[in-house]
Specification:
The protein is α+β, with helices and mostly antiparallel strands. The protein has one domain: Trna Endonuclease, Chain: A, domain 1 (3-Layer(aba) Sandwich). The protein contains five helices and six strands, in the order αβββαββααβα. It is globular, with a radius of gyration of 15 Å. The N and C termini lie far apart (46 Å).
Length: 146
């Protein structure tokens, strides 16, 4: 049985968009520009204050995020002046959410710091990976004062 990678990727993006709507009450749609131009995330949020640019990956086998995926997520995030968020899954595993360690720090900081939009000097080499439940908690905290 042949698997169409583009269809599998699109299905994964729709799954994450639905999960985010269910968990956060915020709508997301697939960014079709990702197929035409570089440095676009996979999902666009209806809320312009949503702090992340989302890259979604779904593959058959593996155990960790590929460095190229994180590089792609960071490039897209810099282009749209947001934080990178890599959401990935291998078959028969749970979704993993990779974000810069800075996102964890920002979740507990006052609103005036959270409003910072200058991402040019940020070092996203330090990242954390969390499960879906933890990711939703961190994102909710960041949205409280956005």
């Amino acid at each position: 049985m042949t698997v169409n990678g583009r269809q599998k990727g699109a299905a994964a993006e729709r799954e994450i968009a639905k999960l985010l709507l269910d968990e956060l009450g915020i709508a997301f749609k697939r960014d079709l520009e990702q197929y035409r131009a570089a440095e676009h995330g996979d999902l666009i949020c209806d809320d312009p204050d949503f702090p992340f640019c989302i890259e979604v990956k779904r593959y058959k086998s593996g155990c960790a995020a590929q460095p190229a995926w994180w590089d792609q997520a960071c490039a897209a995030a810099r282009a749209c002046q947001k934080l990178p968020l890599l959401v990935y899954k291998y078959n028969h595993q749970q979704w993993k959410w990779r974000m810069p360690a800075e996102a964890v720090v920002r979740a507990g900081l006052p609103v005036d710091y959270k409003g910072c939009r200058d991402t040019s000097a940020l070092d996203w080499g330090y990242a954390v990976e969390v499960d879906t439940r933890t990711a939703m908690m961190l994102i909710r905290e960041m949205l409280v004062d956005a």
